[in-house]
Design a protein that fits this description.
With about 550 residues, the chain is α/β, with parallel strands linked by helices. The protein contains 18 helices and 10 strands. Helix 4 packs antiparallel against helix 7 and helix 9 runs antiparallel to helix 10.
Length: about 550
């Protein structure tokens, strides 16, 4: 399917309503066709012949046509507002579903501001096709046909004058639309670059303040914004030149019609009313012809956005080809000769081997940057290994349904993300647990203890990513999440990094008392916090080596 066909496919669910809109459109155009004829009657019979009765009757009929036409216009507007809103929701929903199912690597070099900006802009552009454009195009065609019939009825010679502007307008629009497409591409790239820079600075606001980078960032802002505004200015000026030449052409045709029509009136070949009607019908032709040709300009803005959006929608999502459905108590983990690299130049893991039997507590130790968290990402299938295999109960995890695989794990990370809302909402993420279960998890994790010191408002609104909480409080919430999920395998990824000095004892108590029947994998760079571990693996130079307890 070509790009235009794919855009128009969003109209398919609304074909019945569009058909109805076309029917009432034909009625509206028929009404519009009568209006110049009524004006001709008012002029020739009413005014020229001084027939007041004809003027009154025709004026009343004209008023009726105007009101009826406006009512039909209101009905059309209602239909297309509904179509546009539903299609906009559908495209946004499709985009959101694609976004949350994309591979984890998509988000590695992008910030949320950049993603949100370009998706919003592109979705709104594509969705604009549903805002009556198809029916409007049909209306233009019907108006041109009815206008040409009216013109030929009055004077086919003058009709040729009106048609002469069509090829001129076509050449002009073809030239300007090419320039408009280039300007649109430049504007979008500038907008994405600005969004990327803006989001980056929001994320780094602490460093900006610490280093007093206000002047430097202000200079960068002016440069980025200036480039963006210049690209927008270029596109706006092209649109303005199009309007300028369009106006010159239409007024040129109108003035020429006045001259030629006046000459015909003077020779008696044309009545004054017929001249007025002719000029009205000429508007039926020139306006819609210009509008149809201007669709090239519209698509010059639309196509670049559509290409980017469809490229995004066609991206590969997480592969979920697994057919195996695991039992809830599955928990034996094994890494066999696992290797991984983000790119050819940067090998993270070379030959990782370790296992954890059901109910065992193991630790993986290593320096920062050694690849410990990469092991977690591979285990959760956020990334795929380049070599080797990861097994759960002897089954390669690539053969397991993603949902079942990830249901096996609870994770307490170094920097857990908290959503907007309250503490309980951030613990019961799936909303599948009752209040008693939530309360037990909060008590066991220590969340209940620090919540007693908080106001009801602070409990319900913790800020962006838990901004109103301490690092230790955030991680206790993460522990509560893990306990509530009740998964057979719990991964502690630098889980005490933001705790206080009592963190060692806290974590030990959690493992011994709350996770005693669970398989626990502790990922840490601390060598001293390993009491109670059945085995310890050291990760160094991309490889794992097992250490005995007395060797630590």
């Amino acid at each position: 399917m070509n790009i235009v066909g794919r855009i128009l496919s969003y109209l398919v669910p609304f074909k019945k309503r569009i058909f109805f809109a076309v029917i009432i459109l034909i009625i509206a155009i028929s009404i519009g066709f009568l209006q110049p004829l009524v004006i001709q009657r008012i002029t020739d019979i009413g005014m020229v012949q001084k027939n007041m009765n004809a003027i009154f009757q025709s004026a009343v009929f004209l008023g009726f046509l105007v009101i009826l036409n406006q009512l039909i216009e209101m009905l059309q507007t209602k239909i297309f507002v509904e179509i546009h809103n539903q299609s906009l929701y559908s495209i946004f929903h499709q985009t959101f579903q694609k976004l949350i199912h994309l591979k984890r690597s998509y988000f590695d070099d992008k910030n949320t501001t950049e993603i949100l900006n370009f998706l919003q802009m592109d979705v709104l552009q594509v969705a604009s096709i549903t805002d009556r454009y198809v029916v409007v195009c049909l209306s233009y065609i019907f108006r041109i046909v009815s206008g040409l019939i009216g013109l030929c009825i009055i004077s086919w010679k003058l009709a040729l004058v009106v048609l002469a502007m069509v090829p001129i307008k076509f050449l002009l629009v073809s030239y300007l639309s090419k320039r408009r497409k280039l300007a649109t591409d430049e504007m979008i790239e500038s907008s994405r670059a600005f969004s990327r820079w803006f989001g980056d600075n929001l994320n780094g606001i602490d460093e900006i303040k610490l280093w007093n980078l206000f002047l430097e960032k202000d200079r960068e802002f002016q440069e980025k914004q200036s480039k963006l505004l210049n690209s927008e200015k270029k596109g706006t000026l092209i649109d303005a030149w199009n309007v300028f030449w369009e106006s010159i052409l239409e007024w040129g045709v109108t003035i020429l019609l006045y001259i030629l029509g006046g000459a015909l009136i003077c020779t008696g070949s044309l009545t004054i009313g017929a001249a007025f009607a002719f000029i009205s019908y000429s508007g039926y032709v020139t306006g819609p012809v210009s509008a149809l040709l201007n669709l090239k300009m519209y698509f010059a803005r639309l196509i670049p956005s559509a290409k980017r959006l469809f490229k995004f929608l066609d991206m590969d999502v997480e592969e979920d080809n697994g057919a195996k459905i695991l039992e809830k108590n599955s928990s034996k983990i094994e890494f066999k000769n696992v290797g991984f690299s983000y790119d050819k130049a940067r090998c993270i893991l070379k030959d990782v081997n370790f296992f954890a039997n059901p109910g065992e507590k193991i630790a993986i130790i290593g320096q920062n940057g050694s690849g410990k968290t990469t092991i977690l990402n591979l285990l959760l299938r956020f990334y795929e290994p380049n070599q080797g295999a990861i097994l759960v109960d002897g089954i390669d995890i690539r053969g397991i349904q993603l949902k079942d695989l990830r249901n096996l794990f609870s994770v307490v990370s170094q920097d857990p993300y908290l959503f907007l809302g309250g503490i309980e909402e951030n613990i019961n993420l799936s909303k599948n647990f009752n209040q008693q279960q939530i309360s037990l998890a909060m008590k066991a994790s220590g969340v209940s203890e620090f919540m007693r010191r908080m106001s009801d408002e602070d409990k319900k609104q913790i800020g962006q990513n838990g901004a109103r909480l301490s690092g230790g409080e955030k991680q206790k919430i993460a522990v509560a999440r893990a306990l509530l999920k009740d998964a057979p395998i719990i991964i502690l990824d630098e889980a005490t990094a933001n705790f206080d000095v009592e963190s060692d004892q806290y974590l030990h108590n959690i493992i011994v008392n709350e996770m005693k029947n669970k398989t626990v994998i502790m990922i840490t760079h601390h060598y001293e916090n390993l009491q109670g571990m059945d085995r310890v693996y050291r990760l160094e130079n991309g490889k794992t080596m097992e250490y005995k307890e007395n060797a630590i």
